[in-house]
Amino acid sequence: MIVCVCKSVSDRHIRGAIQEGLESFEELQFELGVSLCCGKCEGHVRAVLEESGVCASGCPHAQVAASKEGLSPIRFFEREAA
């Protein structure tokens, strides 16, 4: 399903980027360009992040859920633009 109409980004693109290591809404904005034009997709992008087990605010909820499933905790880091 297309999430960001302005940039033609689907939920599959977002999930793929998360699997490749993107862990925040800001990183998805930088890499995929989501929510940079009209901003209407922000809620959907954040929902895909949450469904994927990544909490954009770094809250412990996602880390607790991951530890219950035997996954390693989520790492947050700063990323600089090229």
UniProtKB/TrEMBL annotation:
Q: Does the keyword Aminoacyl-tRNA synthetase apply?
A: no
Q: Which residues form the BFD-like [2Fe-2S]-binding domain?
A: 2-51
Keywords (alphabetical) are:
2Fe-2S, Electron transport, Iron, Iron-sulfur, Metal-binding, Transport
What InterPro entries does this protein's entry cite?
BFD-associated_ferredoxin, BFD-like_2Fe2S-bd_dom, BFD-like_2Fe2S-bd_dom_sf
Keyword Magnesium belongs to the record: no
Q: Which GO terms describe its molecular function?
A: 2 iron, 2 sulfur cluster binding; metal ion binding
Which protein family is named in the record?
Belongs to the Bfd family.
Name of the molecule in the record: Bacterioferritin-associated ferredoxin
Q: Which organism is it from?
A: Pararobbsia alpina
